[in-house]
Prior knowledge:
The structure is a single chain. This protein is mainly α. The protein has helices at 2-21, 26-159, 164-180, 191-204, 239-364, 366-381, 387-394. Mean pLDDT is 76; it is low at 18-25, 187-196, 206-239 and 377-395. It is 85% helix and 0% strand.
Amino acid sequence: MTMKIFFACLAFGFAIDTSFNDELSGPSQIRKVVTMLEEMKAGVEKEGEEDTTAYDKYACWCKTNDAEKTQAIIDAEKAIADLTSLIEELAALQAKLNTEIEELEGDIAAANEALATAAAEREKEKAEFETTAADMKNALGALGEAIEVLSKVQLMQKQGKGDSHQVGQMLLQVKNIVTRSNLQHYEAHFHNVMQSDLWDFLASVGSGEKNFLPTKQHDFSALAQPIEGGGAAAGAKSYNSRSGQIFGILQQMQEEFGKDLTEAQKEELRAMISFNNLKTAKMKEIDAATDLKNHKSEELAKAIQDDANAKEDIEDTKAALSADQQFLMELKKNCKIADEEYAARQKMRSDEIMALSEALKMLTDEDARDLFGRATSFLQINTVVSSQAKSTAQK
């Protein structure tokens, strides 16, 4: 209301003042005042439109940035929560992988140790077999020689050929073969018969001579006696019968040694196959554990890298979050100030426009024209008064 009165008084005073100065041209001066007020109103309205345009742009910027930063803060807070959870998961995964890798390394070491132990045992068994096999082969060779000689003695005795010296030499050859080949070592296999027949018999041949060479002083006449019935009877005491027993014993030894050698070879083959199967299984186990360990080591390396990246990301995200929060706080503050200032300007302009409109109405309606007409006539009459009266009227 104050603004309205101000503009009305301003317009009226200006109209009176111009009427005095321009003498009888009062209505024309009122038109000028109206025009001036209209221009003022148009100027205020234009200024309001420009201010509104600028404010709308700024308000849009505020709204857009407020929405973007608010969403960015929400996203950052969610990302921080996700990264925190991820870091915890990666820490647990690293601990789990480290434990599993240690266990796999222990399994690999144990498998290698077991394989090394088995290989050492296999080498020991192989060496023992080779020694035993060599001894048994030597024994079989010696038995073959002795049996061959005794078979000739048996043939000579059956045919009644050969004198005692010839038979004695051949039996002594058998003794030397048996002694040289250390067949006594295998006595345990044939202790039933060897103690009572073989060694007693062979000991009696060339007794007391290390390197017996038959001479005329040795009487081997008993050796030339034929075997009754073509063979030896149990408990016979002659060289003829006992040589037949020894021949049978040696044949039995040869057969048993052959069986033992064959069984030892089979056992060696079974042991070798068993070891190779064990080795193959252990190597597969070691290879599988090694592959799994390498795979888990790659997982661990990736987990460590992911953990480092997550920690770096969470620090960057926290920094960005802090900056966005600060920016949003300043944005809200400044945009609120802008809103308040714009609202104040809008109110002021609205009051100005309303006051100008009221002033124009007062100057242009019928009552105002009559009033200004009467005022103009009154002023025309007073043009003849003194300058003092004019000054008083103007005041």
